[in-house]
Amino acid sequence: MSAELVLSSVIFFGLAVIIPVIMLLTAVFGPRSGGVAKNDAYESGIKHVVGMADQKFSVKFYLLAILFLIFDIEAVFMYPWAVSLRELGMFGFLEMVVFILLLLTGLIYILKKGVLNWR
């Protein structure tokens, strides 16, 4: 066997033994802190949560998040297309025109359905 293979196997098995031993030692001998303040819920600077945890949210929030993701992914697809537009030529340009028209059709449908009306 080569020296590199022996060395890498010794390092691998050494780490496979040392890491669990260190974790076990810290679990046994490490400091433990607990109490009311540590176990209390902390939510974005609010110490005491107001309301029920299972309160209902409007579906409009979820729809808006999905729409944001759809149009955000559109922007992600447009960056590499814009970088390689010269190599793609007219065919690549027409493909992106079709892609944008499909998304525009979806946006018009969403606007006609009134999804973005918050009344």
UniProtKB/TrEMBL annotation:
Pfam families: Oxidored_q4 (PF00507). It is a multi-pass membrane protein. The chain crosses the membrane at residues 6-29, 61-82, 88-111. The keyword NAD applies. It catalyses: a quinone + NADH + 5 H(+)(in) = a quinol + NAD(+) + 4 H(+)(out). One of its GO terms (molecular function) is quinone binding. Its EC number is 7.1.1.-. One of its GO terms (cellular component) is NADH dehydrogenase complex. The keyword Transmembrane helix applies. Gene3D superfamilies: NADH:ubiquinone/plastoquinone oxidoreductase, chain 3 (1.20.58.1610). It comes from the Bacteria. This is NADH-quinone oxidoreductase subunit A. The lineage of its organism: Bacteria, Pseudomonadati, Thermodesulfobacteriota, Desulfobulbia, Desulfobulbales. The gene is nuoA.
